[in-house]
Amino acid sequence: MDDLMLNQFLLLGAVLFCIGVYGVIARKNTVLVLMSIELILNAVNINLIAFGAMNGDIAGAVFALFVIAVAAAEVGVGLAMVLIIYRNRSSVDLDDVDSMRG
Amino acid sequence: MVAQNIFFYVIAAVMVAAAVVVVTNRNVVRAALALIVVFAGVAAQYILLAAEFVATTQVLVYIGAIMVLMLFGIMLTRARIGQDPEMTNERWWVGLITALLLAGVMGYALIDHFGSDPLPEDRRLVAVGGSNTATVSDAIFSQYLIPFEVISVLLLSALVGAIVIARKDR
Fold first, then answer.
1. pTM for this one?
2. Is the ipTM of this complex over 0.90?
3. Nearest residue, CB atoms, B162 vs list A29, A39, A80
4. pLDDT per residue of chain A (102 residues) written in tens, 0 to 9
5. Is A60 part of a structural domain of the chain?
6. Which of B24, B100, B134, B164 lies deepest, with the highest CB count within 10 Å?
7. CATH architecture of B1-83
8. B15 phi and psi, to 5 degrees?
9. Which residues contact B59 (CB under 8 A, 6 or more apart)?
10. Which residues on neighbouring strands pair with residue A93, listed in sequence order?
11. Residue B142 CA to chain centroid, in angstroms?
């Protein structure tokens, strides 16, 4: 119990990932689904940094930065889409966006 | 090292509790504020892993920029600021089953494969100039230059696309 272990960080990332997956499936509000996706991306980043520290490789930090940049792009486009859905339908409820239902 | 362990578990407990608030709270703004706690905790874990440049970026980009965007999104869509029982699907238990199964599989795989591998005592990556930031930037601008340029173009096109999508006069 003296040393920090790799598994501590990996299991923390796994728990955050699962909470995010639950949020994506269970939430109705579009903005809340976007927030759950952010949780998932953060869980992945913890794994990248932990493996980078484990192997003494800077690539973990570099790719964590790339993931952060992609997350910023994703939030920008995602919120623009949420805004246009709200403008057209006066609702951000995912159950109301069903015009492509088969 | 024991102090690091205590800090890890305290921060991890706060992060998991805040993450549960994010996915269960009925108040959208409260969920967003709990998400800030999770992001700050992630930054603290980066510091425990001796990746201080990524920790700083996490604070600047996630807490500073992304959360402000999220709060603007909440305001502009008028997702009722207050109690709203209609935030979760009726079939939320499907998500719970999926998440628990996933947690079981991932937990088993991680414990089975990595067991109790200790992290190296000296985790700081300071190959260039004796600082983590210099090492990261050296890697980005030499070995990972092309992915970096691709990410730059992606970010630019995504932001232009966001403006085009959200524009009123179309």
1. 0.90
2. yes
3. A80
4. 567 888 899 999 999 999 999 999 998 888 999 999 999 999 999 999 999 998 888 999 999 999 999 999 999 999 999 988 888 887 788 887 888 877
5. yes
6. B24
7. Up-down Bundle (1.20)
8. -65, -45
9. B39, B40, B43
10. A29
11. 26
